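Extended Data, panel c. Modelled sequence:
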Amino acid sequence: MALALLAATLLAVDYTLTRSAGDLGAGQVRERILAISAGSFLLAFLIAFFVSRSLSLRVRRLKKLAESIPGGAAKDRPSEESRDEMGSLERSLGGVAIEVQKLLDNVRYESARRAAILSSMTEGVLAVDQELRVTFCNSAFLRAVEFRGTRSEGRFLLELVRDTGLHELLRRVLATGNEEKQRFRLSTLNARTFEVHATPLEMPTGRGAIAILHDVTDLERLEQVRKDFVANVSHELRTPLSGIIGYADTLLEGALHDESHNQQFVEIIRSNAVRLANISEDLLILSELESGQDSPEPECISIRGVLESVLETVASEARKRDVKLIRERVEDLHVNGKRLRLEQAVLNLLANAIKFNRPGGEVRVRAELSDTGRVAITIADTGVGIPSEDVPRIFERFYRVDKARSRQVGGTGLGLSIVKHVVERMHGAVTVDSVLGRGSRFTLLLPAALIPAGSSEEQTVTRNS
């Protein structure tokens, strides 16, 4: 604008000089040039006034807009020497910049904190939009559905979860806008059961939904263990109790004076009473071990002494079932713990090896120092063996591989659980190798006592039926 005005003034002066050079004197030419310059100055002043006024109005509007933003009217904005509209606008924008930075810092902090909370949650969290596209999910959810991809957000839920139960639940929430709960089992490689709580979620693009997945697989397993316990114990208690009551009634009804049968009936009653006592003893032992009340005494235990005592205890049962007990190499080793509990653990393993063996089968017992420096007590049998899918669960309370055979030979399913608890309280471990139809081998690995070991010898004692 200024350049155009200057060019117009120069052209007017040049035109005046050219047309009036011969007609006017030098004084008149100067007067005309002064008039043209004054007119140009006045015009420039008017233009500058209107432009400045327009700019000032725009600056004021910008200042009001800046002050309407959080921080625009803050008193702690940067102070500047300029007091005009531009300085005021600069101060307002400076305050806005400070507040916006604070808001961004808070947003980043809250976002990081929320991400940390969601990532550390054991429950799976899933958010979807109205088209069932994943807008957010945490790592627990990805582990639950066994997602192997690199990016989950933006994908359709069907790409992450093939199970229709979760899809139908979220569709109902999106359609009705109501909260819903449902329990279902995800069909993944390691199938697990989840309790899902889904609620509607308002999103900029419309209604979405968010679901919280709580893994209840272990709770279901515990519930099943409780049911198995009630069923097993009820059966084990009912059978001997029925025998005791039945034969006692028979004696009271006149068989007490039947010399040919009364002693047999009393022996049956005693046998059933002993069975009840064994069940009660196993339950009490397991309860003490799990509660931590049965702390091991600081005593040095001779492994050879424990095995000799237990072998004598089960010798009669082995003869009755036509099972050979073979005492292989038993070194003179020692461990620290409670002798009574260790004897119970070994007794349970030997009793199982005899009960689940075949007529003419063998049970081999061995004790030696392992390559890792721990005492290894091995009990191997030639019995029915354990299916591979049942091996991981045989140390659970009340778990039975063959329920029919277990009830036939007796027991509550607590023996191996007691073995595990005893060994773990002695800071050891128990391992099992089994082939279905060929037998099983259990090994107790216990820390050796810090005493000089005696000489070892190999001897085999076979107890025939």
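The longest helix spans residues 26-68. This feature is highlighted in the accompanying rendering.
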